[in-house]
Amino acid sequence: MYTQTQSAPLSRFFRNPWFLSSAFIAFMVGLPIIAVFYLAFYPEENIWPHLLDTVLPGYIFNTLILMTGVGSLSLFMGVGAAWLVTMCKFPGRKILEWALLLPFAVPAYVIAYVYTDLLEYAGVVQGTLRDLFGWGSYQDYWFPEIRSMGGAITMMALVLYPYVYLMSRAAFLEQSMSLFSVSRNLGHTPLQSFLRVSLPVARPAIAVGLSLVLMETLNDFGTVDFFAVKTLTAGLYDTWLNMGNLGGAAQIASLMLIFVVTLIYMERFSRRKQKQFESKNQGQSLEQFQLIGVKAVAATLFCLLPVVAGFLIPVSVLGYYAYLYFDVSWTSKFVSYALNSFTLSVIAAVITIIIGVTLAYSKRLNSEGATNILVRFSGLGYAMPGAVLAVGIIVPFAAFDNALDDFLRQYFGVSTGLLLSGTTFAIIFAYTVRFLAVSAGAVESSLTKVTPSMDMASRSLGRNNLSTLLRVHLPIIRGGILTAALVVFVDCMKELPATLILRPFNFETLATHVYQLASDELLEQSALASLIIVLVGIMPVIFLNKSISSTRARSK
Amino acid sequence: MFNMKHLIPTALALVGSTTITSVQANEEVNVYSYRQPFLMQPIFDAFTKDSGVDVNVVFAKKGLTERLKREGKNSPADLVFTVDIGRLNEVVEAGVVQGVTTPELEKNIPAQYQDSQGQWYGLTTRARVIYASKDRVEPGAIARYEDLAKPEWKGKICTRSGKHPYNVALIASMIANNGEAETEKWLTAVKGNLAQKPQGNDRAQVKAIKEGVCDLAIGNNYYYGKMLMDKEQSAWARSVSIVFPNQGDRGTHVNISGVSLTKSAPNKDNAIKLMNFLSEAPAQRIYAEQNFEYPVKPGVEPSALVASWGTFKSDPLPLNEIAKYRTLAVKLVDKTGFDN
Q1: What is the three-class DSSP state of A353?
Q2: Which candidate from A246, A347, A423 shows the least CB-CB separation from B19?
Q3: Which of A124, A266, A361, B304 is buried most, with the most CB atoms less than 10 Å from its CB?
Q4: B262 band by pLDDT with thresholds 50, 70 and 90
């Protein structure tokens, strides 16, 4: 079918199980997004005249600055570190290779809080400086204001760069060494080879990582709210909660989606003519450069800095507060909170991966427009602020529950009440919708590197598409799948707004527990729970990282 | 494929079992809460002990109204707990609550703190006060919210975002009392007096006074109690004094936390039982004490600590009159660029 579909008639198209399943998936995960569009048609009042007159230009400007800043900084740290640990040998590389993933386990709102605590006027850093230099008040000296655009960019990049790092490292590892060798043989320096060969080849993967970073930046509310940076998301919540205009808020959410679609489209468009495949390492082992002297120190520092700033410092501060407030924060229910978080995240990660593979593979099978659009559409949930997505889920779920209940009451005299709303099923659904972009994107970028000759060989040996996927593709892209699973798992552990709104009675996860305390401004007392989110998030990071690295080990 | 094969059946089983979980046991009452459960747990425990009725809670800071609205007649929720008059109005306007009156509620809760149709009842009140530096502000130097606009305070005032519900309600009360034009002028002048861009929470403003960033701050007065109870923060609290504004005229702006009965309320009797329980003196005392607030029932004393901050006259304007101006207040904040 791989080659036939180019000219397949429509009827055949609809008999294609892969197309049908991706259409079904797109419909299911698209429901909340459609619900938000639907809400956008019923605003309480037209907000645009007021917004345009006052704050909207500022919101858009701030959003653009924030996205540009976080994007560039994440690219710089993520791609740079991935390249160094993959291609070079320097002191500490073995540890840094996985330690670079650690900041990923730290929620953005937590790191923002920790650094504010350290760097604000009353914090330890400025306090020490004042003692040291004898400055009296804050008029006596200049110190960068942490609660600012620059602060927000730094904080978010510190916890988001691992997306880029993960994706680009997987791509560098999967890259055939021969490309790089040829480039070197043709007289390019290592840097030139990196810029002109390795980087362009890894571009699809880096683009996936970057678009995840940007979408995460766009939908963040906790950090920008804490730092008083007025972005579109801030305007959205303001319209919804303070002006009581959910429809208006849905309009802003739709505007944000247009942002994202444009972004994705621009990236795709820029490499529309490119197509690249490679067969697995071809017996060539990855050779690493031994860095010495200043270069080695510089490489170590480059990779160490994000780990220290994004992980060690926040975890130390959290650990200190957890110790200080241990007696008030430890409750016997902690284990059940952790178990809830863990169970939900594992289930959601597995489901999301299965769906992601289905989408990415059916896109591979049907490379023309329709499937492509369906796959793109399915990923939009990621760009939507969590609370808005939650409302988008409530709408179809409750409508289904109530319709079913009405029907059964009328014809069978039984009432089912609310079947789906307010259950953990709704939460898992939310996670799937939200993080499908992560898994589909990662799987897709891995799949693009498997040469179609594999498919053709497998098909001509009599395997059908499903069997080809299971026996040929999945083993090859195992690393990419594990990466995706890891990202989704950790993201689910940290997810807050949708969990809060959709959960059943008396149901707490670690994140909701942290929030309950943090929202009452008892941040110190929430340190213990925050620390546990981070620690639980680390376990799979280490476990899965081993599997990803074994991609290299096996090829040696 | 790692252990996916083992996970899938487990996952399906879990999803299956959780969807069947129902909340239809007999003696219980279901609560959607915009307030943190730990503030209410002691009082719910007391209620369960007293009546044998279990209390189940979902807490979120946004979206619960929308959830109620969509769940409609099948919603399992019986009661909604909210803070801020804006939220109470929101549930009324969404049409998800019903009016209820009982002799207890009528007797215990002053008319000012209940909806005329019984669609919401206030349970505790809190005052939005001015915190003044003990070292740098003379007692009596500031007496009214309006004084915050005076040029003498240039660069000396701190506040959280003008969009925060607590500030929105305060600004709405200024509009209700002084009119839109005056309030816009006031906001612009206060903006000009700010020491820094509005940021952080109410406690952070008191901390800023302690650190010398500013001399005056706007904040809810229960935070004073909360800070005193905290190892690190008690020093912040001790650096400021509480000023109840506008004692010479209309009185200090107060807001409420309250409760509403949902339209669907499957456990209506138990829900009303809990509402009545909360309005009685013993519950009022514990509930208010949890968060250093004031009981609404006349004659019930606040905790000794809260009482030590002094008595004050509160703005008698009905809260519904203030809530009308919330949207306008938000727009004024945008228009004056207060948060920029």
Answers
A1: helix
A2: A423
A3: A361
A4: very high
